[in-house]
Amino acid sequence: MAKVKGDVGQLKFDDGGSSVNPVLGTTSWSMSISKDIQEITAQGDTFKSFTGGLIEGEGSAELLYDDSASGETASFVDGALVTGDAGTASFELFPDSSSATKKISFNGIITNFEQSSSLGEANTISITFKPTGQITSAI
Q1: Strands 10-14, 50-64: parallel, antiparallel or unpaired by DSSP?
Q2: Which CATH architecture group holds 6-137?
Q3: Confidence of residue 1 (pLDDT cuts 50, 70, 90)
Q4: Residue 85: which of 130, 25, 135, 32 has the closest Cα?
Q5: N or C: which end of the chain has fewer CB within 10 A?
Q6: Does residue 59 surpass a pLDDT of 80?
Q7: What ranges do the domains of the chain cover?
Q8: 20: closest CA among 103, 138, 125, 117?
Q9: What is the pLDDT of residue 52?
Q10: Displacement of CA 77 from its chain's centroid (Å)
Q11: How many beta carbons lie within 10 A of that of residue 58, not counting itself?
């Protein structure tokens, strides 16, 4: 199994849910997927039993602030300002941008925006997002 360095990752986004494009200036992304479980232990059992339930996810991305950002990058940054969001924005997260098929993809909602500016450091923007519906992983 070949190791993949983090500097070749990529995040693609489309607020209209159709044709995704790279979000420029990203320095990292992360994605967490979790599953609810229900206990199905019967009376008299010695050990507990469980079954898998609903699946959900949450992710984040960090990017360098660019005051001239446009297109999907600007839409990605401004996504937390959209009300009545139907959750139809398309997200694709690539561990290696050179492999178009190895990705996590879903439709989702941008839930949080945070910008920071510190003396001696680059201005950064942190975005969090939440999938709505199916999450497809082809990692």
Answers
A1: unpaired
A2: Roll (2.30)
A3: low
A4: 130
A5: N
A6: yes
A7: 6-137
A8: 103
A9: 97
A10: 13
A11: 15
